[in-house]
Amino acid sequence: MEHQAIEDQLHGSSTWMKRFERYLPELVYGSIDGIVTTFAVVAGSAGAELSISVVLILGLANLIADGLSMSIGSYLSKKSEQDNYKKHLKIEAWEIENLPDAERKEIEDIFREKGFDGKELEMVVNRITSNKKVWLDTMMKDELGLTLESKSPFKAGLSTLVSFVIAGAIPLIVYILSYSGNTSLDPFILSSVVTALAFVLIGYIKTYVTQAGLIRSIAETLLLGAAAAAAAYFLGDYLRGIIT
Amino acid sequence: MEHQAIEDQLHGSSTWMKRFERYLPELVYGSIDGIVTTFAVVAGSAGAELSISVVLILGLANLIADGLSMSIGSYLSKKSEQDNYKKHLKIEAWEIENLPDAERKEIEDIFREKGFDGKELEMVVNRITSNKKVWLDTMMKDELGLTLESKSPFKAGLSTLVSFVIAGAIPLIVYILSYSGNTSLDPFILSSVVTALAFVLIGYIKTYVTQAGLIRSIAETLLLGAAAAAAAYFLGDYLRGIIT
User: Fold this and answer.
1) Which residues in chain B are closer than 8 Å to A53, comparing Cβ atoms?
2) Chain B partners of A244 at a C-beta cutoff of 8 Å?
3) Distance between CA atoms of A166 and A162, rounded to whole angstroms?
4) Is A51 on the interface with B (CB under 8 A)?
5) Domain segments of chain B: what residues?
6) Residue A158: enclosing H or E segment and its boundaries?
7) What is the pLDDT of residues A98-133, one digit of tens each?
8) Residue A114 is nearest to which of B61, B128, B229, comparing CB atoms?
9) How confident is the model at residue A16 (pLDDT cuts 50, 70, 90)?
10) Nearest-CA neighbor of B72 among A211, A231, A42?
């Protein structure tokens, strides 16, 4: 904890910001999933010329149902990752207590691989195995390739839910206004414009997660949304012709 | 490659199986996302008493659109992870060439943290920094905590697409049969039963990914699907009352 505070001081970023940034991937990917899924309902309905009430009913139902399932799924997968890490940590700790010779041999193999030999190898192995915490840590990282992400499964799930529902509501807002009679413009065209702007914004925020270039990130996100919406629109249009 | 073959021999698993297993997380999570999203359309439509043709049009449109977006998203996120790894690898390699003293100091810090000191510390640092590959590898793993997943972004995306579309089609099959007049039973009840069975099967396969217990994995997956469907059903039912 104290070390974290010093790190924050050095990086000029508050603890609050750090905490927020930790869940940025969930926020970004949750937003993309949410906005794509409701815009697919909007575009499919527009292609099939379904009524505004169908768009609203299925758009909202899909938003809540998918939002719940994505966030519960995000919680469960983070939870199982952590459970899996803890399970292997327990096994390795048990092995160090009960089969120290075999585990010592594994440390020897790891450092032989790194180019150590003879007296040097013996010394490194002695030093590593003299501290059980370091020993265990080396087994987890170098033997099993496992590291523990310090993310709360609950907060990861909550971040997914909130971003999914907020971003997913964007394509529907125009339809809600249109349904209330507050606009006379074509709701599909208006919704497409608003949704495209939201995709640009999400693509921009995504650069903080992927560290990709700005133009590339925006183009990728926008194209992804457009491809999904076009597929839904043309499929809706095609099915309208064959399904009465 | 040869080492991999020996590993496969020891673990009694063919190279083909190994390759397949590598994409099992994508296959499992793609299946869950696909089946949840189409079953949400089915349940929401049932709650709102919409026609079978609406279920088919929006179910299929959603299946293709969401399937595309999830798989492109999976491809892009794997790709950006690898790009990010390569970027940091390049930076570290450049630093080792051009700022060897600073990078040597970092290796020193890493091993001091592990309990090395004095002559021992000097020896370990000398050994690690004598081989640039080991030096670079240590920086990536111990300083940055980065490891490279040997997954092809393209295959990860393709696995997501195939599993999403196949599993997502399950709740709709009954509606297609029902639409063709091949069954007289209530399509929503039939679809719920078939979908529940599919959730049990996916929960079972999921144990290979999460290594959780069988009962827990099946119960979790089934409850997730049921929660999402119930939310969609009751929201559809509620909105039918207020949206004419």
Assistant:
1) 243-244
2) 53
3) 6
4) no
5) 2-76+153-242, 87-143
6) helix A153-179
7) 999 999 999 999 999 999 999 999 999 999 999 999
8) B128
9) low
10) A231
